[in-house]
Amino acid sequence: DTVLIARSLRQVGGMYQALCDYPNAINYLNQSIILSKKTNYLKGEASALNDLGLVFICQSEFLKALQYLNKSLEIKLKINDTKNAATSYAQIGSVYLRLSNYEKALQEFQNALELSFSINDQWNIGNIFGFIGSLYSDIGVFKKAQYYYKQSLQIDSIIGNKYGIASNLHSLGVININLKNFDQAISYFKKSLIKR
């Protein structure tokens, strides 16, 4: 079955990515893309393109990553894969965040939020609020960063995302240092240690 082979190639590529063996990851993901295209397996093509974008993020090749992530997003929107399209918007936003293109990053995060709210994907909403908090922290708008980290923390607490809870508590600690609220910062840091 060709679809099964395309999936397997993608999984092997993912394993090589996890091992930081990027040349092999790229090779297997490209094979998965080619096979998915030949069989018109759009979901598989979108997934492999997305994974290839993530490989380029790992290599700090952000412009190349954007090319693949955007191709993946285009297919996901075409096949009405709302959940994964929202994730793609968030990933694209995070690349723009790394490139310090804050306006474009915020636009992509807002696109991700809109789709995530439309399907009530709390996990993704919590993550995106955290990304937006990071954006405002990076540009020194600490009160807005604090607001979004608290939003993310609230959602992560409801859905039981322990990693998200610890990460947001830590981020709130850093924000409170910047706001000169040192006692509050210590409190957040201590809480983040308990959650890890």
Description:
Helices cover 86% and strands 0% of the residues. The protein is built from 10 helices and no strands. Helix 1 runs antiparallel to helix 2 and helix 8 runs antiparallel to helix 9 (162-178). It is elongated, with a radius of gyration of 18 Å. The mean pLDDT is 97.
Break the fold down into its secondary structure elements and pairings.
Blueprint lengths: L1 H17 L3 H17 L3 H17 L3 H17 L3 H17 L3 H17 L3 H17 L3 H18 L2 H17 L3 H14 L1
Helix pairs in contact: 1-2, 1-3, 2-3, 3-4, 4-5, 5-6, 5-7, 6-7, 7-8, 7-9, 8-9, 9-10
Tag the structure with descriptive keywords:
196 residues; mainly alpha; 86% helix
Summary of the model, kept short:
The chain is 86% helix and 0% strand. The protein is mainly α and 196 residues long.
Tell me the total number of β-strands. Answer: 0
Main sheet attributes: strand count, strand direction, barrel closure: none
Query: What is the CA-atom radius of gyration, in angstroms?
Result: 18 Å
Distance between the termini: 43 Å
Shape: elongated
Q: Approximately how much helix is present in the residues?
A: over 70%
Approximately how much beta-strand content do the residues carry? Answer: under 5%
The secondary-structure class comes to mainly alpha
* SSE ordering: HHHHHHHHHH
Number of helices: 10
Mean pLDDT: 97
Ranges where pLDDT stays below 50 over 5 or more residues in a row are none
